[in-house]
Prior knowledge:
Blueprint: H1 2-22, E1 32-36, H2 48-58, E2 66-70, H3 75-84, E3 92-95, H4 101-108, E4 118-124, H5 128-137, E5 141-147, H6 151-171
Parallel strand pairs: 1-2, 1-4, 2-3, 4-5
Amino acid sequence: MRTQLICLLILLLGLPLFLTNWLPSTSHDGTYVLVLGTKLNKNGTPSTMLKNRLDAALSYKNDDMKYIVSGAGEADAMREYLIQHGIDENNILVEKQARNTYENILNSIKFLPESITSFTIISSDFHIYRAQAIASSLGYDVNTIGTKTPLIDRGYWQFREVMALGRYWLIGI
Length: 173
């Protein structure tokens, strides 16, 4: 029994890594980019993981791009980071209510014109599978860009993502 539990734990911890590799990141081809928030540093600045996401968004910078930054607590810091790196503040839409990935996407699609059925989601590599699944369940065809998770943080975030995947599969959020 103990061996079976250990095998199950290994399987669960490896699942997000497998799904990340199965669903590779794609290039951006739309007008709207949704950057999913994550924790800030204690001083209120973006953490390394959040900077990676924001820097990925910056790499697709053009005058027509609309950036949606989402997350309760971190959206304003994300907005400021993009402005400091040359994004026009009029091209940044801020969603400040979301406390989880489902709410990030659900609240952010309200910023999209009705004619838009496709957009790009930028998040960490381990998180892309679930983000894409949620957007698809809401009727959107999304491109994904997964940023690398710092190795020192990977175990924690991967375990957390396994739990979140389980919750999503069970109750849909």
